[in-house]
Amino acid sequence: MAVSADPHTRLVTHALGSCLGVAVFDPVVGVAGLLHAVLPLSSADREKARTQPLSYVDTAVPLLFRACYRLGARKQRMVVAVAGAAAAAGEDDADGFQIGKRNLVVLRRLLWKNGILIRALDVGGRRLWRTLALEVSTGRMLLTVNGVERVLDPGRRDNTWP
After folding, report:
1. Which residues pair with 36 in a beta bridge?
2. Range of the structural domain that residue 70 is part of
3. Does residue 146 sit within a domain?
4. For 48-107, what is each residue's pLDDT tens digit?
């Protein structure tokens, strides 16, 4: 996880497979945050969750928002984009653990309970390795898949890859 209010900073996370990349931006105060969460629920391993809370969607997302709030961000203004949640085994039905899908379900439930909407989404697929970048100065979110970079546009209804 990284959070910044420095307009010269670009936050980046790589190798989003079944993991989730969660980007948040408050355009009023110019605060941005980026998270790379690996697993859905901290209850799967309480000891690891205690020492590595950023590994789990259910514990990492609240930490991301709180870190942004400390820099002046407000929940009502936050723009949220999400990428990742691919099928780990390459075939949706061959991925018996369904980590990507479970990560997304936990995230959606957590955000919904807190009245937060996802404004841009690029998730799912098979063996997609995504890179998500967030420019602190503008809030522009860039997504790279298989060497092709494009803007993950919060104003666009369909951000999925063809």
Report:
1. 21
2. 2-151
3. yes
4. 989 999 999 999 999 999 999 999 999 999 999 999 999 876 444 555 689 999 999 999
Q: How many domains does the chain have?
A: 1
Instruction: List beta partners, residue 134.
Output: 11, 141
Is residue 102 within 8 A of residue 126, CB to CB? The reply is no
Q: pTM, whole model, 2 decimals?
A: 0.91
Is residue 57 within 8 A of residue 103, CB to CB? The reply is yes
Look at residue 41 and tell me whether its pLDDT is greater than 50. Answer: yes
Pairing assessment for the beta strands 120-123 and 79-84 based on DSSP bridges? parallel
Residue 138 is part of a domain; what is its CATH number?
Answer: 3.30.1330.200
110-to-106, 136, 152 alpha-carbon distances in Å? 6, 24, 22
Distance of CA 111 to the CA centre of its chain: 12
